[in-house]
Write a structure and sequence with these properties.
alpha+beta, 5-stranded antiparallel beta sheet, 10 helices, 16% strand, globular
Length: 220
């Protein structure tokens, strides 16, 4: 099965972000994207940022407690992946952009709702971690997803743009040692709670339930 990711251009994405306050994301749908994201360039950038944070008084840091969730399945990785990708649709920016370009925000919202139906969630991007591990000579079955809803993200971002750091929610699906599938992700409310905003907390609590129910459903 091939991994399906969002198809977009940086110009189009910036337009969506500006107009609908959608979450910041990196659409990595190809093997090339996977290798670049996991390669030395990303590591070097992270090291530079860490060094800067230690010497620049503009940078601040505070601890955040995050609840981590693991969902195991008796089904195989391939079965669970197929079930998930059949249950929720990939985000298709090309279906939304015509409305945005025409200034038809009502039409854009309606299309976004349709893309997220019936679960209220979409796959905004996917990243084949297993393929990237081929570089180490040990390919595995593992895929990372950005799962969310642009409209839900906008409803949080309007209160605090930093909430875009956690939208969409990152979920990893991989094959365990016994051949069965496992999901892992961080509980949305535990990440968004750091912003101390009741409106964001309310939406995050709904995401907790919606996402967990979806992953339990496709893995049972």
């Amino acid at each position: 099965m091939t991994t399906t990711g969002a198809v977009t251009t940086s110009k189009q994405l910036k337009s969506i972000l500006h107009t609908l306050s959608s979450p910041r994301r990196v659409p990595l749908s190809s093997a090339k994207g996977a290798l670049l994201a996991l390669g030395g360039g990303a590591l070097l950038a992270g090291q530079c940022l860490a060094a800067d944070a230690g010497t620049d008084d503009r940078a601040s840091m505070r601890p955040v407690t995050v609840e981590h969730i693991r969902i195991s399945s008796k089904r195989s990785y391939d079965e669970v992946r197929s079930a998930l990708e059949s249950r929720i649709r990939p985000f298709r920016i090309e279906r939304v952009m015509p409305f945005v370009m025409q200034g038809d925000m009502a039409g854009a919202r309606a299309e976004l709702e349709q893309l997220a139906a019936p679960t209220g969630l979409s796959i905004l991007y996917s990243l084949d971690h297993g393929l990237a591990l081929s570089l180490e000579g040990a390919p595995r079955k593992a895929v990372g997803y950005g799962i969310g809803n642009v409209l839900i993200a906008a409803s949080m971002n309007q209160h605090n743009l930093a909430a875009g750091l956690y939208a969409p929610i990152r979920v990893v699906l991989y094959e365990g040692a016994d051949g069965t599938a496992l999901f892992e992700y961080d509980r949305p409310s535990s990440m968004f709670g750091q912003f101390g905003d009741a409106a964001i907390d309310s939406v995050a609590a709904q995401l907790d339930v919606t996402l967990k129910n979806l992953l339990l459903e496709v893995s049972k």
